[in-house]
Amino acid sequence: MSPQPPTVVTGIGVSPGRVAAPAVRMPDPVPEPPAGRRLAPGTDHDAEAARIGEAAERVKAGLDELADRTEGDAADLLRTTAAMATDPTLVDDAVARVMSDHLVPERAVWEAAASVSAQFEELGGLFAERTRDVADVRDRLVAELTGRAAPGVPERDQPFVLVAVDLAPAVVATMDTDRVLAIATAEGGPTAHTAILARARGVPAVVAARGLLDGLADGATVVVDGSAGTVTLDPSDDDVAAARALAALVRTFTGPGRTADGHHVELLANVGDPGAAESAAEAGAEGVGLFRTEFEFLDRSEAPSVAEQVREYRRVFAAFPDRKVVIRTLDAGADKPMPFVAGDPEVNPALGVRGLRTAAVHPDILEDQLVAIATAAQAESAHVWVMAPMVSTVDEAQDFVAACARHGLEQAGVMVEVPSAALMSGPILAHARFASIGTNDLVQYTMAADRLLGAVAHLSQAWQPAVLQLVAATCRGGAAQGRPVGVCGEAAASPAMAVVLVGLGVTSLSMTPRALADVAAVLETVTLDECRRLAGLALAASSAADARAVVRDQLPVLAELGL
Ligand code: PEP
Ligand code: MG
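Above: inputs. Below: predicted complex with magnesium ion.
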């Protein structure tokens, strides 16, 4: 009898690399216990109330044990959360709700936590930021009391592949990448911030792998291929050995980026904070093509002060002396909500007041940020370029450039993320000094496909010929005005797509530093003319799948390098 062929689930590869390891399922979020759920008459209230204290002790012990195995800031954070689990304010309040309101312990904990959070909110400042820790402790206590798996990334002795329906960006941002070797989700979109973070952290990832969780046993070995976008559920020994051999290959980038005939393509880094900028410099990036300043603002109840911003920006600029650093002004809204810029609730936040549009409502936030950028730029030698996110009209571009000029920031540009900006790139670039195409949002708005939604992930691809047409239009606008056009969306990090983008006229590519070596390795095997020819083939394709296939077919180097 011949062996059964392995079961391969196809999704979308969002972060390259192949990993073979046991699959571990991310527990479902802890649901809110129903309001008003009370103890049955005659229940021993003392015994039920005592369960809260016992659960708190167990949660604390578990977190302390985890802290002992963790280092640095993460360990401190875990100890603080552990202490909160047995904090009398929370536990005594929950016990009182069992004794006097007859609530079941899990509901009592839920309500007590809400009350503690409200007190923290009222105190504001640093206290308000602790409400997330309260929610974490609450969920752990409720899980303990109801016999569920503890929330968060599970603990295992061996490194593993984390599988889930979907994962929040915060989980991917904070998970320990020595333990989580790859991620695979049944839902999720390729340009969601979860996918971006997986790529930034160098964790191979596949999203929108429908059927992934059907019958997948916890601990069963799987092979995740983040380049092919597949998860093999019952791999052969050869599949496992091949994945392990590939994982051992490491490429490095020493710059600058060039095609085979010496055409320079600036290879830059996307960063979100000073630490990432320092690692990008170590990885050989020629500069920074996208500094997402909002990562400094996320989770804050108030905007950081000008002085604080100056300190952070200086550290990023200092990592690239005499090099280019493109800093983007605050991109709040949609999937990056920030309490201090929140306006009225919106039905379609992605189409609402986000990015540069928030400046009309909060001009002070943009002004403060430009003051901080100008001050930091003066103190450092980096060549600072400033750009605005979500520009959709010529007037917006003109106003932004004028605002930058008032602060002495001459290199002011725009992101092209909205189809209108791509189509109007000529007139826009008569004002703006450069454009940087944000393909993540450009794909979302061109294809009318939410970048967070797994159900439309097949549409959310920069390979869509319509998206490529808009990139080409932007490059024509740039060429007509003699202005450079870069790409800083995730598309820039795909080696095959990078070749097409260069062929369309893109002059710089900005990506997670981990992708620099792969993109450079492929670019140096093709001439500029070949890039143009391949771009022509992709533009002429009638679907994303055809565009990708026709280009990959002509680039055998991709398979040779395992990309
Ligand atoms: C983009 O939209 O491509 C982009 C780079 O911006 P962000 O992913 O931060 O929205
Ligand atoms: Mg964007």
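Residues 266-560 form a domain with the TIM Barrel fold (CATH 3.20.20.60).
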